[in-house]
Amino acid sequence: MSVSENGATPLLEGRHLSKSFGPVEVLSDVSVSLSAGEVHAIVGENGAGKSTLMKILAGHLQPTRGTIVLDGKEVAFSGPVDAERHGIVLVHQEILLAPHLTVAQNIFMGRELKLAGISVNDREMNRVAAEAVHALGADIPPTTVIARLSIAKRQLVQIARALHVPHRVAIFDEPTASLTPFETEAVLNVIRDLKARGKAVLYISHRLNEVAAISDRVTVLRDGKHITTRNTAELKPVEMARLMVGRDVSHLYPDRPPKPESAPILEVSGFDVPGFASNASFAVRAGEILGFAGLIGAGRTELMEGVVGLRPHRGEVRFKGEPVVFHSVRDSMRRGIVYLSEDRKGKGLLLTRDLPTNLTLAALSHFVRGPVLDRRKEEAALSHAIGEFDIRAGRHDMLAGQLSGGNQQKLLLAKMMLLEPEIIVIDEPTRGIDIGTKQQIYKFIAELAGRGKAIIVISSEMQELIGISHRILVMHHGRIVGEVSGEAMTEDEIVVYATGVKTAGTVAEMAGAT
Amino acid sequence: MSDATMKPRTGFSWRRIDMAAVAPFVALAVLLIAGIFVNENFLTVNNLVNVATRAAFTAIIGVGATFVISAGGLDLSVGSMTAFVASLMIMFLNTGIISDPLTMLFAGVAVALLLGAACGLGNGLIITVGRIEPFIATLGTMGVLRGLTTYLSQGGSITLQNEDIENLYHPVYFGDLLGIPVPIIFIALTAIVGAFVLYRTPYGRHVVAVGSSEDVARYSGIAVGRVRTITYMIQGLCVGIAVLLYVPRLSASNATTGLLWELQAITAVVVGGTALRGGVGRIWGTVCGALILEIVGNIMLLSNFISEYLIGAVQGAIIIVAMLVQRSLMRRT
Fold first, then answer.
1. Which domains does chain B have, with CATH numbers?
2. For the segment A131-145, what is each residue's pLDDT rounded down to a tens digit?
3. Nearest-by-CA chain B residue for A399
4. Which residues of A touch B216 (CB under 8 A)?
5. Is A4 inside any structural domain?
6. Which residues of chain A have pLDDT under 70?
7. Is there a domain that residue A474 lies in?
8. How far, in Å, CA of B19 to CA of B326, rounded?
9. Are residues A183 and A270 located together in one domain of the fold?
10. Which of A34, A191, A398, A459 could form a disulfide with A12 if both were Cys (CB 3.0 to 4.6 A apart)?
11. Please, what is the Cα angle at A296 between A291 and A299, to 5 degrees?
12. pTM of the predicted model as reported, rounded to 2 decimal places
């Protein structure tokens, strides 16, 4: 595969790349090529080897076998700095910025401009940084501290930092993983611009619609192996998904349980979470799946954390018609309301502890005999949870951090289910989870609703909210600005609310005007 | 899935041994062997019993420190607290408000334990309610308690004056029970109770959870502030227990009582394999660490190569070496 689609010599090639970590081969005999002015997408499930491939091409990892060819010449990168010197830059999936430094300081970190070779030239760096950020279509003052920026803007700063190095090849490792569609569009525009300027772009994502929208060619990896490389135009997203998973995924979403008509189990009215959400009112019924859509930073997480007592709040909450006050999350747990954080690793599970410890942590009082912990009962509960939620764990004494993202989510769900909740709030239930496990999580959510649990799902993936919810509330700037249900649940409809173009108020006005 | 496949694997395997947990005991064994070559009097029952007895203060305070550190905290005030509690206990015994010496002594014991727990509660509240870093908060109380002790003793020492009580109390440090010196029994009981609480009760699980991740603990509905405050109370209680042994030993306290004991206690905890960043607590490792410290001192005393005046320097070096070893042995995740 030395000649690319348009017949030109490829700019960058990986030939028969393999990578093993100890006895485990995570990438085997994968070849990929990239030409100037081309966007080449790499898709695959988590663990398919995408990130490993990227890291090899960007000099972060050395291949066990195989070679990298740049401009037809074999090269070996000693490290990422060496790869950058050859014009290959990598935009990482995670945000790797110093939160307390400014935008400009981060962009120039490690390559500061100096005055007379001694003191840092802040004025010049701020000027250049402002230009760099502006070139990405963002308007962020260069002296802003990173911690004050939204995730989307941080991602743009990170891209600006990567592209600040003179480059010919830009590799993007799931740059939109934590972005909402509106923010994603900004990143995609950056990539279109790179392509237009004749740069070569390697784009990793598991969002197939993005891949279809932006790439010229697509390579599918599965289990570390090269499955196919095709022109994007010839491959429908559904087909891509099938190739990724190796089986049919047209039934990603389960059948929705019947929409309940009972009285609401939880009513929230005039609810404020200072600094994040204001005057929010909503209600959820037993057996209902209520979606919360919105851009990142719209205040969905903070609103729900306020409702369950994890954040200071004001406003009225009624549980089964009775006014309740949750001073801490313990109060809401006692009533049977649980919140599964979007930050599974930071707030959901003790990564350095074993599985039984994690499973029973929130419900530890159910696992005592007298004053003593009943470890047998904990083990039994874990065995039960592993069966019920299909948690793939080699051993019970594995650490939670050794589980894959999907299995961590299942463990977190099992942990909270031990509290026998009536209301389950799940924040970003499938972030960073492969498509096969997503399907399972959706099934669990639908089953729980079918058993009469009220479910609130916060998600930035509109498709998934549309796929599983009975109705969806949309937040913008800390306010609930709209509700969609039934036929009106479309991405377009949600986006106009989420971006503040339309609010329920303006709809009413327009309705009144006609 | 059948029952058999659901069971966790419990089979023994060398590869699954947690080196960080075993290392302190290996170090202890190595030291014992090394001691034989230094001096033929080292490996005698008499000498070893003496060493263990002297390790009592560090070991008992270390058990408390294991709780504090497992929960991600730190207590620098234990040395000053020992001096303060010991001084007040002696002053209380000297008041003679109860005529019967035995009753008076029991009242004194209660005073020491309650006072220790109260000092710990103070530390805990400053840290959790006042939201002050444990390092700074206990650095502050370390100065306060040391200063109060100096004030109470007016720069001199506070001596137990009632001879009846002194005679009655003497065996608690110098006596033995079934041939075992009482301080060793104190170490064993404190460690057994400590290990039970840390490993077998929901509270102990909460301590480790808070130390592993305060956020995860909070989102799991654990009362993080209460859990942390109680660790400082346990630490204070352990200081109280150590005072119970300290007072009969010298029948006096002064401004230098318990000087640098915080260094020894924290060193014992770290040498024992407890992670200083929290989340892992090893009670028996701490006891082992306290013995190691005392044996190193003992070997230095018995040997001719190193001056015993360097003991402090060696102990300081041990904590640094222990941290380096711990990091290289830590189970990676």
1. 41-326 (1.10.3470)
2. 888 877 778 899 999
3. B333
4. 346-350, 361
5. no
6. 1-8, 23, 46-47, 177-178, 180-181, 247-250, 504-514
7. yes
8. 9
9. no
10. A34
11. 70
12. 0.80
